Amino acid sequence: MAEAGGVGGAGVVVTGVAAVAGTGWDLAALGARTAAGEPAFTPVTRFDAGRYRTDLAAQLPGDPVLADELVSIVGTACEQAGLGAAERAVSPLLVAVHGDPAVARLPESERTGPGAIAASIARRSGLGPAPRAYMTACVAASTAVADAAAMISHGRAHRVVVAAGYLVEQDNFALFDAGRSLAPDGHVRPFSAGRQGMLLGDGIAAVVLESAEEAARRGAAPLARIAGWGRAGDAFHITQPDPEGGGMTRAVTAALRKAGRVPADIGYINAHGTGTAQSDVAETAALHRALGADAARIPVSSSKSVHGHTLQAGGLVELAVTVHAVRTGRLPVNAGYVGPDERCGLNLVLDRPVEREVDYALTLNSAFGGANTALVVARV
Fold this sequence. Notes:
By secondary structure, this protein is α/β, with parallel strands linked by helices.
């Protein structure tokens, strides 16, 4: 069932945003590489990937520790937002991660359950009480953003910090390889003929969301606005998407309704776009159902074609890419494209970034189990 609601995001602004990925150690590198369509896939160095269908992923150098990188990225976003210690102390943290504290490499003394990761990151970052962990696969981060925006718009919080992280590791690599989801040709080709699957990537991101009134009171300059959000389930299959894109259709429709917008207002879509055969077709169907004739007009790309699939972190990494694109007016290239697939009739950004001012953009995510999310990002 789609999330209901009227215009709800008029006062939810982004005052801090930070992200790192296999493209480099800051949002500027991520924005530049995705805009240019320069994939970041290199041979895996953290474990022996020689037995798998591919040995490529988009990795940060070395062997970073996820818990440490989450603390660092939260600090960067909070500094950009101008948050002092007192303001951080009353700001709740929502964090999207793998549920196993060992994956985040928490100290043994702190590995008390899935919520331990959120508690540890909040404590080390000086953030408020009752942190919450999200582990709902590839919509974990975007679900956390939607919850944060709802908390703010309903007056339950003045400000919420959302963080998410995934670093390529062998267990998930082996799992997706066993499911024949990884692209053996080493390229992610969303919505393209000849696409063979996805590739994994590192991703750590954080955003500070506030009410417009709170940002104005502090004198913080908004970077963008979360104008609308929608969530809906397919109820179709545990791993396969609804071929007609039913859940994503409802999520997009709900997000537009909450934003008080119509399809003609949307100027860019950062699609889920995994480069897998069934998922891309289902997403295309959903966009045509939700947007009508505008689906053939709106520029579309999937930044996963550059930074890879960052799993639980995907929704936040891709929100950061979308905010960067809206702020710079450079719409990212859909990399890896080799030719049209008649089942994926979208206005893909190819060859070079589209230089255009965009007032409203969509960023979309889907997950196993049939979960779908849509966020409307507005330029300020």
